[in-house]
Design goal:
The complex is a heterodimer. Chain A is mostly helical. In chain A, about 50% of the residues lie in helices and about 5% in strands. The N and C termini of chain B lie far apart (about 70 Å). The interface between A and B is large, with 32 and 39 residues.
Chain lengths: ~80, ~425
């Protein structure tokens, strides 16, 4: 029997997919990411949940090409002047 | 640093738009110029349009760019300084830049402002005007002001009139409410923290306003707060003395759950003298009024052993504050063994012993001295358990408290 590739219509209800994503991320972030890769309906809810709270900017700047986000430790007395 | 393409920036924008809480720390600063590139490529609605919580550690490298993280949906803003940086000694242009950044904080959805950390020794007073201007723009959604920055009189009055204002850390004295001016009606606060230079003046104001005029409906300025206040935290080294006049306004808050008077009698070099001037009856009176207490700290207990309170003050606390879990109060241990013996013969104590006691497991004695021989340890251990049936140990600096705690533990295991 050939299975229908159409996702269940429950995945069209954004409130529900967001709830599912929230629970998945709590249980296991890696599982959540795997599911997001496997099911397009879950991609955005899972990613948005994963990005909801960020500690530092490294992860965000990490999506830029290499070299942009390299961490540099400024000297303790180095003030940065606004350009 | 290479130049990201428009597609690269779109990717950043996509992810940034999902962020609700952002902690900008001091530990992993991006490469020099990154913040500037972020500013130059900022999308029309900003990088973080959905951001609701911004926890910003100001560093020498990120301070000019805080506005990159501002969003109209911000509900919580927390600002602390890099641990090694005393902002108050920063160059004037840096202070001005910071002050104008603070002035620009968005307030349309703001609920909570936190500025400075408890352990800060530096002064945040420079930002009084800028933060006051922010407070003056806050609307009905605002609930918490937890900041080491003193506020202008106008800002204080504005806070007082916000309908959902619940938690307030105050630094500095209150506005001058003259006898002719209309007394403010304070909101139903749940937490009040009186910081440096605030305690004495604010408590005096409370006493004066409560003893003074009442409105036509019989409400007093603090009538809502007297019912609602659950936490009172006093952390003001300028408190000169803890006596009945100091406690009198505090006792008006009869639903207090947490009373924390974090004062020290002596400076770090032990200079100074004991400021605890309450007696057993005063402490018993407090316990009889504040029966909802779960946490009671009446100033850090010092080493002088000159106070007039004895272990006798602990029994009414245990009886009347039936939910108490944490306690620290000065008591004189010079004649502690005799004090326990006298207590057992006192008819009032005998009556109290018939009543249930609080579930306290640890008695904080901080620097209270104790000198006991073997039989004395036994008497005191039994006496302490008699007052606090769930007691497991006494937490003090002197080793003898550990010996006593061991005996208490042994008796409890029997």
């Amino acid at each position: 029997m050939i299975r229908d590739n159409t996702p269940h219509r429950i995945f069209g209800i954004s409130d529900l997919t967001r709830l599912i994503a929230g629970q998945l991320v709590l249980i296991s972030q890696q599982t959540a990411v795997n599911l997001a890769c496997a099911c397009r309906c879950l991609e955005e809810p899972v990613l948005s949940t994963l990005w909801e709270t960020q500690y530092g900017l490294c992860t965000l700047l990490g999506v830029l090409p290499g070299g942009v986000w390299d961490v540099e430790k400024p000297g303790v007395n180095d003030y940065v002047v606004c350009a | 640093m290479g130049d990201p393409s428009p597609e690269d920036w779109s990717r950043v924008q996509r992810y940034a738009s999902w962020m609700h809480q952002l902690h900008v720390d001091e530990w992993s600063p991006p490469a020099e110029g990154t913040f500037n590139k972020l500013r130059l490529n900022s999308p029309p609605g900003g990088w973080f349009p959905a951001l609701e919580g911004l926890y910003w550690c100001i560093t020498r490298s990120n301070f000019p760019y805080a506005d990159l993280f501002f969003s109209p949906h911000l509900k919580i803003i927390s600002i602390v300084a890099q641990w090694s940086w005393d902002i108050s000694s920063a160059p004037p242009d840096v202070l001005q830049t910071l002050a104008s950044t603070i002035s620009a904080l968005p307030t349309s959805s703001l609920q909570r402002i936190v500025v400075g950390a408890d352990h800060d020794t530096m002064s945040w007073a420079y930002f009084k005007d800028s933060l006051s201007s922010v407070v003056l723009r806050c609307g009905p959604s605002f609930t918490d002001y937890d900041s080491l920055v003193p506020l202008s009189d106008a800002a204080v009055n504005h806070l007082i009139h916000l309908p959902h204002f619940r938690s307030w850390r105050i630094h500095g004295p209150p506005p001058n409410y003259s006898a002719t001016s209309l007394s403010p009606i304070f909101p139903p606060l749940e937490e009040l923290m009186l910081g440096q230079g605030a305690a004495r003046e604010w408590l005096l104001l409370l006493e004066r306003l409560e003893g003074g005029v009442s409105t036509t409906r019989g409400a007093t300025p603090f009538s809502k707060a007297k019912e609602s206040l659950k936490v009172l935290y006093i952390n003001d080294s300028s408190v000169p003395i803890i006596d009945t006049s100091f406690l009198s306004p505090i006792q008006r808050f009869q639903n207090l759950v947490h009373l924390n008077i974090e004062t020290y009698c002596h400076k770090e070099d032990d200079e100074g003298q004991c400021i605890f001037k309450l007696d057993n009856d005063n402490v018993a009176g407090l316990a009889m009024v504040l029966t909802q207490l779960e946490f009671l700290l009446l100033g850090r207990a010092c080493f002088e052993n000159t106070c007039s309170t004895t272990v006798s003050c602990l029994l009414p606390i245990s009886v009347h504050c039936a939910k108490l879990e944490k306690l620290e109060v000065h008591f004189n241990t010079t004649n502690i063994v005799d004090d326990f013996k006298n207590m057992s013969e006192d008819p009032r104590s005998q009556h109290s012993r018939l009543l249930p006691r609080c579930p306290l497991t640890c008695l904080d004695v901080h620097r209270i001295p104790l000198s006991l021989d073997g039989p004395g340890i036994e008497t005191v251990a039994k006496g302490m358990i008699d007052i606090f049936p769930s007691l497991e140990w006494c937490d003090g600096r002197e080793e003898v408290w550990d010996v006593l705690s061991e005996r208490i533990g042994g008796l409890q295991d029997m």
